[in-house]
Amino acid sequence: MNAAHTPSPRIVTVLVAAMGGEGGGVLADWLISAATAHGFPVQSTSVPGVAQRTGATNYYIEIYPVPSAQLGGARPVFSLTPNPGDVDIVAASELVEAGRVLQGGFVHPQRTTLVASLHREYAVSEKSAMGDGRYDGQRVTEAAQRLAQRTFLFDMRALAWRNGTVINTVMFGAMAGSGALPFSREACEQAIRESGKAVEASLNGFAAGHDHVTGAANAAPAEQGWAAAAAAALHPRARAMPEPLRTLVNHGLRQVSDYQDARYADLYLDRVRAVCEAERAHGGDFPVTRETARYLALWMSYEDVIRVADLKTRGNRLQRVRKEVGARDGEPLRLTEYLKPGLDEICSLLPTRAANWLRTRLAHKSHKLSIGLHMRTDTVRGFAMLCALRSLRPLRRRTSRYAFEQAMIERWLDAVRRALALDPRLAFELALCGNLVKGYGETSERGHRNLGAVLDDMQVAMASVSHDAGSLEQAADRVRSAREAALADPEGRTLARALGLPAPEVRAHPIRIVRRRPAR
Questions:
Q1: β strands within 113-253, DSSP E
Q2: In the list 119, 167, 239, 296, which could disulfide-bond 160, CB 3.0-4.6 Å?
Q3: What is d(CA 108, CA 89) in angstroms, rounded to the nearest whole number?
Q4: Residue 149 DSSP label
Q5: pLDDT score for 52
Q6: By CB neighbour count within 10 A (0-12 exposed, 13-18 middle, 19+ buried), where does 133 fall?
Q7: Among 162-176, 292-306, 419-433, 455-469, which is the least confidently predicted range?
């Protein structure tokens, strides 16, 4: 064939979808460096976006896979933005980020190689939902398999953590291992070396991602070593639990131990074990105990003033703030915390009798006591105030809030255990009701009120219900309907209708009338 009729190579297009702090810009630089090492013409653009969590950014790179020396002075024409269906390689640092790119039409079944991490970074809308507001990741993975020519989906964040690096290194290795990049592995590794930042850890992450995609023989022993290390990290009492519960109970143990102390963690484990023993007769993989352990850990680490102060004064939190605002090492940072303590927050730190007395005396002034405070925690005085609140943790067991929460927890656990003696499905629905209690302030108050209404209704029903399968099935359905109603309506009106109760009153905010002098 005449050289004049030889078709020109097609421009290789790469789209990287990453979030802040994940090194998407560094990954784009590595791609440019590797292309330059081969002499390929290359162009890169980045488009900051707010599509998902106000931090998502698209990095778009176009590479002409022919050395510039062979073009005879000609230069390819590159595009600044990706076109739907016209992208060769898509790399997403998180599952829903992959879904966003899929929804945008950038992945084509006859052209695109999709490399994405399966882990999740939950959006604010997911975390703030009353119920389980998480997006269905299975729909994203199914769409990826259907819409991409080739897919490489695995948990890149976990692989990065195992190698002490950031997720962008694993993404780079997976992209190189897929064979879709017009670079050699040596050029990619040399690009990492030339960056001069955390080179060894970055090379380890690159190798881990590359070997995972190519199925290298040394990947399996690494996985086995990680599993062995994870098993060794289990608390001895968590290892004594049935296998389906060990990992979850261990996470719960770490949560409540960090919240209070080892004795509090022992209380958590004793409570979980009591439910486990009650469920053991039913066999299976302990679904009731699993959900109880999950929500019990969250409930026992409820947010109070002490917890907030503790989290705000931790070193890793201050480092994260500096990273989020882009402060350089040694650069001064002014940090102002916004606090709005009310009567309930103040009383929650007092013993029960003192808290009840103060609430009675100041109930008519509660709306005036809730005043917003701006505290400079980059100053010695402001930070010391938070440290003083944090130091109250040993006294938490003497507070009225602690007594109230523990009493409500015991009531919920008692209902779950008694239901297990009747029907495991009824107990499972009651265990899921632990999700009603969450948040702080009025949100927490409504959750306690809704859970109390469900338990009151169930107590009456269990006293009169017969032990036949039909009656127990109806009782379980009633609990499920009540829980879903409570999660659907934070004010509790839907729950009241479901249980046949009078609708709760809606608190009216006090109206302040301001008289102004007439203008002269």
A1: 113-117, 150-154
A2: 167
A3: 10
A4: S
A5: 44
A6: middle
A7: 455-469
